[in-house]
Amino acid sequence: MDKKIRGYKYRVSGTHCASCELIIEKKLLELDFVKSVDASSPKEEVIIEYTGEKIEPQKLTVCFF
User: What CATH number does the domain containing 42 carry?
Assistant: First the structure.
């Protein structure tokens, strides 16, 4: 597997507060390939640093269910 760290910005909607940001960050950091997460409610975005191939949004969504 490719160990190079990459970053990508994902658009999100429906977050309203710092608590939402913390929940998103905590859940995504549980994934082995995710190295860092910065969620921003005002910007409606999540910036993720990860290893491997680009992460499809569907792969990220499943960790919230």
Answer: 3.30.70.100
